[in-house]
Amino acid sequence: MTSQQKIIAQGAEATITLNENIITKNRLQKSYRIPELDNRIRKRRTKKEIKLLTKASSIINCPLPLGGRTISRENSKNKIASEVASKGGKTIHMPFISGKKLSQHLNEFPLTKQKQILKQPDKMFQNSTTQK
Predict the structure, then answer these.
(1) What is the mean pLDDT of the chain?
(2) Between these two residues, 69 and 118, which has the higher pLDDT value?
(3) What span, in angstroms and rounded, lies between the C-alpha atoms of 23 and 17?
(4) Given 51, 83, 91, 109, which is the most exposed site by the fewest CB atoms within 10 A?
(5) What's the Cα-to-Cα distance from 52 to each of 6, 8, 107, 120, rounded to whole Å?
(6) Residue 115: exposed, middle, or buried by beta-carbon count in 10 A (0-12, 13-18, 19+)?
(7) Tens-digit pLDDT profile for residues 46-84
(8) Do the beta carbons of residue 105 and residue 121 sit within 8 Å?
C-alpha cells in the first residue's frame, strides 16, 4: 500500500482502499485453504462480481470496473473479465463516487420505506445523479 492509499473498508473477504479517485477491492488470501484452491476461488468470485457490476451498469447508472484503462459500456463485458484474469484476477478497480453509502441512507428510513427503495434502485440512482 502506498502512502496515498487509504483503507476505507476491511472485511473477511477483501480490503477496499482509496487512492486518488480510484477504489481498489483486493480479495484476501485465506491461509487455511490449499493455495491452488484459494487462487481459483478468489479469481472466480472476482470475475463473477465484475460480470454482475457490468450487468448492473446496463440497468442503472453506476460505474464500471476499470481494466488497465476506462472501458466503454459497449465492449466492456468480455474485455474487463479477460483483463482481470490476465492480471491475477483478485483485484477490482472502480471510480470513486463521493457521498454516503447506500446503507447510511437506508438507515434514515423506516423498514417499509427501505424495502420500497430497494425495489426501485434505478429510480433512486437516477435521482441521486441528477441532483448535483
Answers:
(1) 78
(2) 118
(3) 6
(4) 109
(5) 26, 22, 25, 17
(6) exposed
(7) 999 998 988 888 887 788 888 644 344 444 444 544 455
(8) no
The C-alpha atoms of residue 15 and residue 24 are separated, in whole angstroms, by: 8
Q: Dmax over Cα atoms in the chain, in whole Å?
A: 49
- DSSP for 5-38, please give it: -EEEEE-SSEEEEEETTEEEEEEPP-TTS-HHHH
- For the residues 18-31, what does the mean pLDDT come to? 93
Banded model confidence at residue 86, pLDDT cuts 50, 70, 90: very low
Residue with cell 487462487: 39
Fold classified for 6-98: Phosphorylase Kinase; domain 1 (3.30.200)
CA atoms within 13 Å, Cβ hemisphere of 4: 6
Domain with CATH 3.30.200.20 in the chain: 6-98
Grid cell locating 35: 493455495
Q: Over 70: is that where the pLDDT of 97 sits?
A: yes
